[in-house]
């Protein structure tokens, strides 16, 4: 092949993008080789800064490829802060719907061009790859949602470092949906209001015993202990447990609240007055719901109450999250609809008394987390590195968009354990808590 014919056979980055995305392209694309694609008046401009960035997009079109290019610095989007890139998600939705499958001949040309650029030998996100622990789990024969593998999953996400989470979670150190008393309420007030809501729904009072599973940094445990409730709280994150124990001691609550580094399935105590599960069910696995609710019903006295607070889908057909979330954020995580949660509670130990959807509250919570991360961006990068900080910004902004657009929801479901005669043991008929 002559030098002239070889030059004629090469493709520009803009031409590769045109082969991958159906017209009209929702983005303007500008590439390191000077080529462009998409309309000049598009709302957002994507800049592909390196052959590696192009390779991520071309070899894995969709959320994973786009995220890899973004996080590794192979791509940037004009006008979006790395901590809160919320604005691009409307356009990303359009983009993901317009990726096309090139013909065999087109694919050969694209891969030949990537190979010529030396971009096919890269390794995906070694700094923030969240699935390496799965390789160990598989080698050891650990099944999904075994105790050992669940411990690895939780550690992969939550043991990034307490100081990093302190930058955006606020004073309450709460990594679950807040409950805003008004649209303009602050994050800390909204988180305290969420604990108030859970406390009142569970009819807790001084002297009662609460089991709080998936307790995070111990916010619910400390809220209840301040009101005279005896709490056993468990988490599979060693760093969370250490932080929570220190907070309990600092608040002088050591006689009432115990924070354990422990799987909830290993809690030996029983006869609790209430169980709170705030943000744990997402990690349990839909096939394990029956065992989960049966186990927790067995931990309650007759008439005891359980509050389950978890992310759900708007319907009951889907269970697995997107590839990006599953690979880099919450490995092994599973969601389903609130109807499935209610049915499994009803079938396995509980009469369901009440359920409600707080998805707009989670939208606001994520917005406030992103803004806190934005305000502390330089420190976040110092603590965890630019790739991980960008990863968290993208996932939280995308989740904010998802709750606003009903891609996901947040449901609280309240249930009571009946006695052998079907009695609620004094639990009232009507709603007894303040909304």
UniProtKB/TrEMBL annotation:
Belongs to the CFA/CMAS family. Keywords: Lipid metabolism, Methyltransferase, S-adenosyl-L-methionine, Transferase. One of its GO terms (molecular function) is methyltransferase activity. One of its GO terms (biological process) is lipid biosynthetic process. It comes from the Bacteria. The lineage of its organism: Bacteria, Bacillati, Actinomycetota, Actinomycetes, Mycobacteriales. CDD domains: AdoMet_MTases (cd02440). It holds the Pfam family CMAS. This is Cyclopropane-fatty-acyl-phospholipid synthase. InterPro entries: CFA/CMAS (IPR050723), CMAS (IPR003333), SAM-dependent_MTases_sf (IPR029063).
């Amino acid at each position: 092949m002559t030098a002239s014919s070889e030059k004629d056979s090469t493709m520009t980055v803009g031409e590769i993008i045109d082969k991958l995305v159906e017209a009209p392209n929702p983005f303007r694309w500008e590439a390191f080789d000077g080529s462009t694609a998409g309309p000049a008046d598009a709302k957002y401009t994507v800049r592909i800064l390196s052959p590696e960035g192009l390779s991520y997009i071309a070899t894995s079109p969709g959320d994973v490829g786009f995220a890899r290019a973004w996080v590794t610095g192979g791509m940037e989007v004009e006008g979006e802060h790395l901590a809160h890139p919320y604005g691009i998600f409307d356009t990303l939705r359009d983009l993901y719907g317009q990726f096309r499958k090139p013909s065999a001949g087109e694919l050969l040309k694209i891969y030949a061009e990537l190979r010529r650029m030396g971009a096919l030998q890269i390794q995906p996100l070694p700094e923030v790859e969240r699935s390496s622990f799965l390789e160990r789990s598989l080698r050891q024969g650990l099944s999904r949602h075994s105790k050992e593998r669940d411990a690895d999953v939780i550690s992969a996400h939550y043991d990034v470092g307490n100081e990093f989470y302190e930058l955006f979670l606020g004073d309450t150190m709460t990594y679950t949906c807040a409950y805003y008393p008004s649209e303009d309420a602050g994050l800390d007030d909204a988180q305290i209001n969420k604990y108030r809501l859970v406390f009142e729904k569970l009819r807790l009072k001084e002297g009662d015993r609460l089991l709080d599973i998936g307790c995070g940094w111990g916010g619910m445990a400390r809220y209840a202990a301040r009101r005279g409730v005896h709490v056993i709280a468990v988490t599979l994150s060693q760093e969370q447990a250490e932080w929570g124990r220190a907070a309990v001691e600092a608040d002088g609550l050591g006689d009432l609240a115990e924070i354990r580094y422990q799987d909830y399935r290993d809690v030996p105590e029983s006869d609790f007055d209430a169980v709170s599960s705030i943000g744990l069910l997402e990690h349990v696995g839909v096939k394990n719901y029956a065992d989960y609710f049966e186990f927790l019903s067995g931990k309650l006295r007759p008439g005891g109450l359980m509050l389950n607070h978890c992310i759900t889908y708007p319907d009951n057909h889907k269970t697995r999250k997107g590839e990006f979330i599953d690979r880099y954020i919450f490995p092994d995580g599973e969601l389903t609809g609130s109807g499935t949660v209610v049915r499994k509670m009803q079938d396995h130990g509980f009469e369901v008394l009440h359920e409600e959807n707080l998805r707009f509250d989670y939208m606001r919570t994520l917005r406030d987390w992103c803004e806190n991360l934005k305000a502390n961006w330089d420190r976040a990068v110092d603590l965890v590195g630019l790739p991980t900080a960008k990863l968290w910004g993208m996932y939280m902004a995308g989740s904010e968009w998802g709750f606003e657009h009903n891609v996901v929801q947040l449901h609280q479901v309240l249930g009571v354990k009946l006695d052998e005669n079907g009695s609620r043991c004094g639990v009232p008929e009507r709603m007894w808590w303040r909304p």
